[in-house]
Write a structure and sequence with these properties.
This protein has helices at about 5-20, 55-70, 80-90, 90-105; strands spanning about 25-30, 40, 45-50. Helix 1 crosses helix 2. The protein has four helices and three strands; from the N terminus they run αβββααα. The radius of gyration is 13 Å and the shape is globular. It has a three-stranded mixed beta sheet, covered by helices on one side. The chain is α+β, with helices and mostly antiparallel strands. About 50% of the residues lie in helices and about 15% in strands. It has a single domain (about 5-105), classed as Metalloproteases ("zincins"), catalytic domain (Zincin-like), CATH 3.30.2010. The structure holds zinc ion. Zinc ion (ZN) binds near residues 66 and 70.
């Protein structure tokens, strides 16, 4: 497992994907989030859960691509799934790992 060196490396990866997926990003932050791995708003505000920094980079990529695709595809339907596969290959294992991590996460408060 390879984890992120720091916030900067994670943010740089987000911007790389945003560029590739042609998604405008106005503000980008990594912060403590209680119930979510990421959130976005259509005016370009993008937040990621800082817990991702301690997880495998592949999981970070999954969350980044997942969230960025929502700029153009608001649901998890057929189109979203096929775009996920185009960019990440078979992502089902990553999805499983992330679900497991969500279930194990102890979020105070
Ligand atoms: Zn989603």
């Amino acid at each position: 497992m390879r984890i992120w060196r720091d916030k900067q490396e994670f943010k740089a990866r987000v911007l790389e994907w945003a560029d590739k997926l042609n998604v405008p990003v106005r503000t980008l932050s990594l912060r403590t989030m209680r119930n979510k791995w990421a959130s976005y708003s259509t005016n370009g505000y993008l937040n990621f859960n800082s817990d991702l920094l301690a997880m495998d980079k592949k999981i970070g990529d999954y969350v980044i691509v997942h969230e960025l695709l929502h700029f153009n595809v608001p649901n998890h339907g057929k189109l979203w799934k096929s775009l996920m596969t185009v960019h990440l290959g078979d992502y089902s294992e990553l999805e499983r790992k992330l679900k497991r991590a969500s279930a194990n996460a102890v979020r105070p408060g």
